[in-house]
Amino acid sequence: MKALITGITGQDGAYLARFLLGKGYEVFGLYRRTSTPNFWRLLNLGIFDKIRLIPGDMTDIASLSNAVIECEPDEIYNLAAQSFVGTSFEEPLATAQVDGLGVASLLTSIKQINPRIRLYHASTSELYGISESKAKVLLNEQSSFWPASPYAAAKLYAFHQVRIYREAYGIFAVNGILFNHESPLRGLEFVTRKISNGVARIKVGLAETLELGNLDAERDWGYAPEYVEAMWLMLQQDKPDDFVIATGESHSVKEFVEQTCGHLGLDWQEVVVVRERFKRPLDVPCLRGDASRAGQKLGWSPKIHFRELAELMVEEDLKRWNSYLEGQLFPWDAINDQLLYQGHSALLQPPSE
Ligand code: NAP
Ligand code: F7E
């Protein structure tokens, strides 16, 4: 079997590539040219040399078609996206081009080149937005969507394009409505990794405070390596269908800080500083998913829950910072030291307050 993964350099792309290699797949990855190489996740998982990389960009349909022709894949996993909700308020058009129109381009390429290719599309719990979540209900495949960010609006367009190509042309195309999933390979700007990395730095004496935004937001946080298996399972079914993947629990940002600080013997109230600049113009207050349909039809269920997730993430960051202080750089750290040690460039701006 051959699989093409877009977004191979991201958190999910790396874990999915490892998973598919383990199943005996030949794995191709679409990557976009960057001025600094960003293969640190693939290097970290020890799979960089096992993947065939093909250059391309979601905003360039010619490059997508070229990748589909070159790989001749049985399955495509479309994980590429401008995936940071906060940035989508600052770059709504770029987000729409990549996360919305890019998916329409990929579907067009599949239809024209080989409509028998199966497509997994990375949809998101952000589609539900604010209206339903106010009531803290368990969200499932029947719940209504009311996006609350340019990111979610672009993803809603993509969600319907996938459904339309399935119904109109019989393409095996599915939306995985995944709730938040995290890991030590999560990007540093997302709140869980920002916290685990920040708390570990405080523990080893490299920082004194951790600046955050809305501490009351609640999310349903699962473990990314388990979620990529659900993506694969969705493409192994007899009929294409959309599934919710979630843990069924929600916890607040404050609880995540409490859990990680407590694990390292720190008092969270002494280290956290709330900054307006990390709050969003609109924020979804609570998301909690019901994955029972995935349990029944795919046989999928989450194993790692909130407490274990928070602890494994902060321990991994602590280990990395201790290695750094002992003068041992991992190879992938050396390549990406700016990103890994200083955080996303947007967060380097001096505080405005
Ligand atoms: P991520 O770590 O931010 O990775 C995003 C990937 O997309 C990166 O490989 C990135 O490449 C690539 N990309 C961005 N713009 C591109 C473009 N114009 N052309 C080609 N590639 C491009 O995201 P993730 O957490 O792995 O998430 C994977 C997918 O699942 C995304 O679509 C995300 O929106 C969706 N999702 C994630 C979650 C979650 O909790 N993680 C939940 C629901 C849905 P660079 O490395 O070059 O930037
Ligand atoms: O924010 C709050 C923030 O950026 C979670 C993406 O993978 O999951 C992710 O989107 C919550 C929000 O993830 C800070 O306001 C407080 O309420 O980690 P996040 P997200 O926005 O939920 C969904 C399912 C996706 O599809 C996305 O691709 O935490 N929060 N203080 C903060 N968030 C950040 N980033 N930084 C803070 O300082």
Task: Summarize the topology.
Elements (H helix, E strand, L loop, with lengths): L1 E5 L4 H12 L3 E6 L8 H5 L7 E4 L5 H11 L3 E4 L6 H6 L1 H22 L4 E7 L25 H20 L3 E6 L2 E2 L8 H13 L6 E3 L5 E2 L2 E2 H12 L7 E3 L5 E2 H11 L4 H4 E3 L17 H7 L7 H20 L5 H5 L1 H6 L11
Parallel strand pairs: 1-2, 1-4, 2-3, 4-5, 5-6, 6-11, 7-10, 8-13
Antiparallel strand pairs: 9-12
Bound molecules: NADP nicotinamide-adenine-dinucleotide phosphate and ligand F7E.
The site of ligand F7E has 21 residues, from helix 4 and helix 7.
Descriptive report:
Mean pLDDT is 92; it is low at 337-353. The protein has two domains: 2-182 and 221-245, Rossmann fold (3-Layer(aba) Sandwich), CATH 3.40.50; 191-219 and 250-283 and 305-339, Alpha-Beta Complex (UDP-galactose 4-epimerase, domain 1). It has helices at residues 11-22, 40-44, 61-71, 85-90, 92-113, 150-169, 191-203, 224-235, 253-263, 268-271, 292-298, 306-325, 331-335, 337-342; strands at 2-6, 26-31, 52-55, 75-78, 118-124, 173-178, 181-182, 210-212, 218-219, 222-223, 243-245, 251-252, 272-274. It is of the alpha/beta class and 353 residues long. It is globular and about 60 Å long. It binds NADP nicotinamide-adenine-dinucleotide phosphate (NAP) and ligand F7E.
